[in-house]
Amino acid sequence: MSLGVEVRFMEHQVQTEQPVRVLVVAAHPDDPEFACGGTSARWAEEGKEIYYLLCTRGHKGSSDPEMTSERLIQIREEEQRAAARVIGAREVVFLDFIDGELAPTLALREAIVREIRRIRPQIILTHDPTVVYTAGHINHPDHRAVGTATLDSVYPTARDRLNFLHHERDGLLPHKVKEVYLWGSATPNVWIDISCSFDRKVEALRCHVSQVGSAEQLADRMRERAKNIGEPQGIPLAEAFFRIAMER
Ligand SMILES: [Zn+2]
Fold it and tell me: pLDDT tens digits, residue range 182-195?
């Protein structure tokens, strides 16, 4: 065997073994852990690169009469960074949109497209924007806004060169995402077994002290939820998504 052949083979190996990049796009700190912490932790363990994009810093998530938004965003940013470390995420990016005031504007879409073109993920996880309410709760309008803006970013905006052409001048080229996983969907079509990463999901959730407090029943509550999602599918503990595999 000539050295040339061997080198080409090695190059091919390097190319095919590039880790899969996963971008989690969420409205608020703690959404990524509640919604897909088990999946992200499992995938990180398996060698996928996990990136977090938080559209707000969670300015409004407190009923403490002494709390200010300025203090809260510092606390929540730190909590989110700590949780991401437990999950094994490589990077956490915060956008400067205001908690409670998100709308699927062109400005939000531009910011998400910029990160998609920079990070170049094959997989995106985000909120299902179609769920407005269930029998038990009304979906937060920020969640719907981020879900809509993210889908609009994946297709067609990030893919098509002439959208936000100024990105190209910053060295950010068009990018085609292969799969989108929507959490909170009323009609999931994919269930991820999180039995092996469930403890890490709970540990990461505990980093959000300002939100979950001491929450002694947190692990039990989360276990019950993961069991209810997984058991009909024959999976002990699961997170569920609606998966879109992009054909074009
Ligand atoms: Zn939220």
Answer: 999 999 999 999 99
Beta bridge partners of 114: none
Q: Which one-letter amino acid corresponds to residue 36?
A: C
Residue 170 pLDDT more than 50? Answer: yes
Whether residue 7 is predicted with pLDDT greater than 60 in this model: the reply is no
Could you identify the residue written with the tokens 């038990």?
136
Distance from Cα 31 to the centre of ligand 1, integer Å: 5
What's the pTM value of the predicted model, to 2 decimals?
0.92
| Fold observed for domain 3-245 | Rossmann fold (3.40.50)
Cα–Cα distance measured from residue 137 to residue 80, given in angstroms and rounded to the nearest whole number = 24
C-alpha–C-alpha distance, residues 136 and 138, integer Å = 7
Position 95: which residue type? L
C-alpha of residue 209 to centroid of ligand 1, in Å: 15
Which residues face 125 on adjacent strands? 24, 181
Backbone torsions φ then ψ of 50, nearest 5 degrees:
-105, 130
- Cβ atoms within 10 Å, residue 130: 16
- Residues 115-162 have pLDDT tens digits of 999 999 999 999 999 999 999 999 999 999 999 999 999 999 999 999
pLDDT of residue 213: 77
* Ligand 1 centre distance from Cα of residue 148 (Å): 14
